[in-house]
Amino acid sequence: xxxxxxxxRTSKEAPHDADSVNARLLVQAGFINQLAAGIYTYLxxxxxxxSKIKTIVREEMNVVDGQEVLMPALIPKAPWEATKRWHAIxxxxxxxxxxxxxxxxxxxxxxxxxxxxxxxxxxxxxLPVSVYQIQDKFRNEARAKSGLLRGREFxxxxxxxxxxxxxxxxxxxxxxxxxxxxxxxxxxxNAIVTEASGGVFxxxxxxxxxxxxxxxxxxxxxxxxxxxVNREIAEVKDGDxxxxxxxxxxxxxxxxxxxxxxxxxxxxxxxxxxxxxxEDGSAGQVWMGCYGFGPSRVMGSIVEVHHDDVGMIWPKxxxxxxxxxxxxxxxxxxxxxxxxxxxxxxxxxxxxxxxxVLWDDREDVRAGEKFADADLIGxxxxxxxxxxxxKEEAVEWKARHEKDTRLVRIDEIGDEVxxxxxxxxxxxxxx
Length: 431
Ligand code: ATP
Ligand code: MG
Hints:
By secondary structure, this protein is α+β, with helices and mostly antiparallel strands. The chain has helices at residues 21-28, 44-63, 77-82, 110-120, 166-186, 267-271, 295-305, 333-352, 367-377, 387-391, 410-422; strands at residues 32-36, 39-42, 67-68, 74-76, 93-96, 102-105, 129-138, 153-163, 191-197, 204-211, 217-222, 228-230, 250-265, 275-277, 283-285, 287-293, 307-308, 311-312, 323-327, 357-360, 381-385, 394-399, 406-409.
C-alpha cells in the first residue's frame, strides 16, 4: 500500500480533547476518527488492526467448537420483559419504531440467543452446543471515555454455551477459560485471570485484566502464585498474605478488563421455559455459560501497553502492516529514480511472499517527517531505501522497539524479513 494513496493521515497536533494515550495516538496516527464521545470510525489502518484481533478471537473460539452466527443488534422489547431486564439494565439504548413498537440496541445477547437456541435444541442429544458472534454492542455509558476503552458503540465477541448439567458446563467453561489466554497472548497482551463477582448466577466470574497505569479497575494479585481478585469483591488488601497459597503477598494493580466469562446457570433458560428431553423422557434443565471479549477495548489496551514517547509499537500479530518501507527523497532525478525503483522492487518482492508493506512513497516530504510518522504509526519493522543505503546495495533495518539500525543487503532482505516475521514475538511492555 502506498502511503500517498492511503485514506487517513497522521496529524502533527495531538487532538486537544484526548483523555488517554490510546485516544491520542490512534487519532493522531489516522487509525480512528471520533464522531462523538465513545463513537468512532475506523479508518483503513485502524480497521486492519481491529480485523486482525477479530480473526484471532474467531480462530481461538473455533478451537473450542464455537460456531459463528450473527444476531441482530436491534432487539424487540418482549424478550427483555421475559428476563426482567428492560428496566434493570441501566445502559440499555431504547428506541421506538413504526407504530410505536419499542426496541433496544443489544448491549449483550442472552435475550436473543436463548430463544434462538431453544428453537433448534429439543433433546439432550443436541447438547452441548456453543455459538458466538462478533458484533457491535451499544451501551449508553454515562461516561464514555478513554478512547476505545469505554465506548457507547463498541465491538464484542460474545459466545454462549448450552449444557444438560452443571458439570458439563463447568468442564466447558474451564476449556474456554484456558483458550482465552491464547487469544490475549496472540494479541500481545499478558492477561491476568481475575476472580470477580459472578452476579446473581454463581460465586465468581472470571475477568481477564491487563495491568496498566491507565486501567480503571483495581485488582489484587499474589506475587507468588499469581492468584488475583477484583477489588469490588475482594476480602484482601494491599500487603496481605495471599489467602490462596499462604506464602506470597498481595499487591494492588491498576488494570483494564478486556474479557469476562460467566456461568449463567439456568437463569435465562428458565426465563424462556427452555428445557430439553432427557434420555428417560423427562424434561431437563439447560445450563448456560457466556464468554465476552472486547476487540475494540483490546485494541485500545494494546496501545496503552505498547507505546513510547513518540508513538505506538504494534505486536506483529495485530500490526496494520508488518513493514513500513520508507523511500527517501533526493534532489538528483536519476538518483531519485534509482531509489524509487529499488523501493518498488522491494515492495513487490515482500508483498509476493505474504509480507504486508506500507510504503511511504511521498515525494517532497523530509526524511525526519517520514521517520516521525513511522514512529507514530508504530509498524514493527521499518526499512529505509536511500542514496546512502543503495551505495552499499543495502536497505536500513530498524525494529520499532529497538534503537539501533543496521544495513541488510538487498539480495538478502526478503529472506531476513520472512524469518523475522515467523519468529516468536519478543515485545515487552513500554507503556
Ligand atoms: P465494564 O465493567 O468495564 O463496564 P462490563 O463488565 O460491563 O465492562 P461485559 O459485559 O463483561 O463488560 O462485556 C464483555 C467485554 O466487552 C468486556 O470484558 C470488555 O472487553 C468489553 N466492553 C464492555 N463494555 C465496553 C465498552 N463500553 N467499550 C468497549 N468495550 C467494552
Ligand atoms: Mg465484565
